[in-house]
Amino acid sequence: MQELFRQIIHLEKKLHHPEHRQNRLFLTATLHDDFLEFGRSGFTTNKAQTLQDLLGVEPNSVSMIHSENYVSVLLKPGVILVTYQSYQLKNQERIKLTNRSSVWVETRSTDWQLRFHQGTPVAID
Q1: How far apart are CA 115 and CA 33, in angstroms?
Q2: Are the C-beta atoms of 86 and 70 separated by less than 8 Å?
Q3: Prediction pTM value
Q4: Which distant-in-sequence residues (6+ apart) come within 8 Å of 103 by Cβ?
Q5: What integer best gives the mean pLDDT of the chain?
Q6: Spatial distance between the Cα atoms of 50 and 116, rounded to a whole number of angstroms
Q7: I need a labelling partner for 113 at 20 to 30 A (CA). Which of 7, 32, 56, 79 fits?
Q8: Does 116 score more than 80 pLDDT?
Q9: Position 83 confidence tier, pLDDT thresholds 50, 70, 90
Q10: What is the CATH number of the domain that holds 92?
Q11: For residue 91, what are the domain limits?
């Protein structure tokens, strides 16, 4: 089970890298057709909107997202919940600290897709 959790976390982390966030093939394969996100911004988006938003950004303006404190739970066979914290760095300081949760579903015997994602801002004292 731990190896499966590592694989899912690896997929999650790939979504944090600009080169993957702007790769249509990767995003199309990784996001479930019924993908839904409650973003840290407060907006709700689906797969089509997310693709449009991510692919419509200038390549140099996409920031690297850092993440830590991952916890994975098998909700039932073929469904995994992942929670963690993310942030960006600006002048070596953490900004946009966010609690995140993702639900990954197995779509075939070896394929996993992101079905749901939520980001909730965390106040930084």
Answers
A1: 8
A2: no
A3: 0.91
A4: 75, 79, 80, 81, 82, 114, 115, 116, 117
A5: 92
A6: 12
A7: 56
A8: yes
A9: very high
A10: 3.10.450.50
A11: 2-121
